[in-house]
Specification:
The chain is of the alpha+beta class. The protein has four domains: about 80 residues, 2-Layer Sandwich (Alpha-Beta Plaits), CATH 3.30.70; about 60 residues, MutS, DNA mismatch repair protein, domain I; about 55 residues, DNA polymerase, domain 1, CATH 1.10.150; about 100 residues, Dna Ligase, domain 1. The protein is about 40% helix and about 20% strand. The chain has 14 helices and 14 strands. The strands form three sheets. Strands 8-7-1-6-5-9 form a six-stranded mixed beta sheet. Strands 10, 11, 12, 13 and 14 form a five-stranded antiparallel beta sheet that branches. It starts with a helix and ends with a helix.
Length: about 375
């Protein structure tokens, strides 16, 4: 394909963004699991991997305190020890990591029916049909981060953007425990100041090639004429140029795993303190009405109801109850939530910072299936 033909394709196909992608990356996953299991490891340079006795092997991952010394994944242990002689090493508990990863991916699957797992600590969610805009996507990401922390006491960083590669780049900007949203019209400005190595796939060798042509940032590349980029860096350079200038370089047929949505939830965050439980109940009841309405729109009925409460110290409590059979009744949800709430009525309501209600164990309503009442009231 000639350059002219490429640019025609570029003009027609690559200026449209019709998806909202959320990328989740667990922060220093292995290291933070070890810190969670042994809090004495918190706040110190920590390496997971290799043999602590022989100082041989390769770094699987390391804490952020270790990264300050230049240690990174894939580095020989011997080199890491030279960079930081007082670093602490653990072999790693890989069965535990696998179980924790499985639990977190299960949490993610509740947020979108379209998901792609990219590793034990990272995944993409296509939330295009789950949210209406990027602001809703941001709120969804905050809820997801909260659920992951409540489930496994681990933090993650999330990027939200129109494509997978941009969402991944965005997730790296504010680590750890970050959240960065890049809307289609913000892509060029977002990319401008980033180092060229922020783009996945550009390593040491590629960086040297770019640097030899005075390209060290994405902005440096963006301002070059595309003809010159094609001549100096070839097709890959041109593709990178398109990315940093805000064009869509991803194929539209990339496959995600689709599955039925497993839950519907709604949360209310309190920026003002409420002095009484009746005031808080107004917000809980509003959340109940919203999720039941969404379930009816999607022709789903549910069996499990979950109440979530977060306090001012960020302690999060969840309580759930499963019904004997699937239901669609708003009244039933309200009764269950009131019952679950009784445990917390003794607490000071001014300490409540968030409430949420979730319905799960969803099942499609069979329009041909009659209820018992309909069956017994049928006419002969």
């Amino acid at each position: 394909m000639t350059l002219a033909n490429q640019m025609t394709y570029f003009s027609e196909k690559e200026q449209t963004f019709d998806k909202i992608i959320l990328y989740m990356d667990l922060d220093a996953f292995f290291a933070n699991v070890e810190i969670r299991e042994n809090p004495k490891l918190a706040g110190i340079p920590l390496i997971v991997g290799g043999n602590p006795q022989t100082k041989r092997g390769v770094v699987s991952t390391c804490s952020y305190e270790a990264r300050v010394y230049g240690i990174h994944s894939g580095m020989p242990i011997s080199q890491a020890v030279k960079l930081c002689p007082h670093v602490t090493m653990v072999r790693g508990t890989y069965k535990l990591y696998s179980k924790v990863s499985e639990n977190i991916m299960q949490v993610l699957s509740n947020y979108s029916p379209v998901m792609k797992i990219a590793g034990n600590d990272e995944a993409y969610l296509d939330v295009t049909n789950v949210v209406s805009d990027y602001e809703e996507a941001r709120k969804l990401a905050i809820e997801l981060k909260d659920d992951i922390f409540a489930s496994e006491h681990l933090t993650c960083s999330i990027g939200i953007a129109p494509t997978k590669i941009l969402a991944k780049i965005a997730s790296e900007v504010d680590k750890p425990n970050g959240l960065t949203v890049v809307r289609p019209l913000e892509i060029s400005d977002f990319m401008h100041s980033l180092k060229i190595t922020a783009i996945p796939g550009i390593g040491k060798k590629s960086y040297i090639v770019f640097k030899n042509h005075s390209v060290e940032t994405c902005g440096d590349l963006a301002k070059l004429p595309y003809q010159l980029v094609f001549q100096k860096f070839g097709k890959y350079g041109l593709k990178t140029w398109k990315l940093v200038n805000g064009y869509n370089i991803e194929k539209t047929d990339e496959k995600f795993t689709s599955h039925e949505r497993k839950s519907i939830s709604e949360e209310r965050t309190f920026f003002n303190r409420y002095s009484s439980w009746p005031d808080i109940w107004v917000h809980i009841d509003s959340a109940i009405k919203t999720i039941v309405s969404k379930a009816k729109e999607k022709k789903m009925h549910f069996r499990t109801i979950t109440l979530k409460i977060r306090f001012k110290d960020f302690e999060t409590a969840t309580r759930a109850h499963s019904l004997l059979c699937h239901e669609t009744s708003e009244k039933q949800v309200r009764e269950v939530v009131k019952s679950l709430l009784e445990e917390y009525n003794i607490k000071d309501p001014t300490h409540i910072r968030l409430v949420g209600v979730k319905i799960s164990n969803l099942k499609k309503i069979d329009v041909n299936q009659r209820t018992l009442a309909q069956f017994f009231n049928k006419s002969d």
